[in-house]
Amino acid sequence: MKKKSEHKVRELCRENYPLLILLVVFSVIIAVCNGCNALVIRKVVDLINGERPEEFKKYLVILTMVFLGSIISQYIYTRLYNKYSYYTSTEIRNNLFRNLIRKRYPDFKKRDVGEYVSMITIDATKLNDGYFLSTIT
Questions:
Q1: Which of 64, 98, 102, 131 would be a feasible disulfide site paired with 126, CB 3.0-4.6 Å?
Q2: DSSP readout, 46-88?
Q3: Rounded to an integer, what is the distance from CA 69 to the centroid of its chain?
Q4: What pLDDT is recorded for position 134?
Q5: Sign of the C-alpha dihedral, residues 5, 12, 88, 130?
Q6: Per-residue pLDDT tens for 106-132?
Q7: CA angle, 55 as apex, 51 and 60 as ends, to 5°?
């Protein structure tokens, strides 16, 4: 039997599925660019002492292009991750407050008001710190 919280996490992931796919794609692109950077840097260093300046220039241009691709991919990844984090944290906050509002009056009387305020404050702090988001992604 699946827990209710697992179901909610899966639902959050389904709602933001396109963003998750893009995050994975850009993670792979960044990894490939970083690997290519290492290989091209090695080739450029090998060519520094060589007597083939044209080949050196060619690899230097390739290195620059791959490096720029890596920077642009990292920027896009960061923007997508921030957007995903915002959507996810907003949805979690909305669920928290929606569930709190649904409680009946006798349920509120069972606990001290301070406990509810403490729960909301702790959950909001964890959201701001990225605690829940690290478990989702």
A1: 131
A2: HHHTSS-HHHHHHHHHHHHHHHHHHHHHHHHHHHHHHHHHHHH
A3: 19
A4: 54
A5: positive
A6: 776 777 767 777 777 776 666 666 655
A7: 115
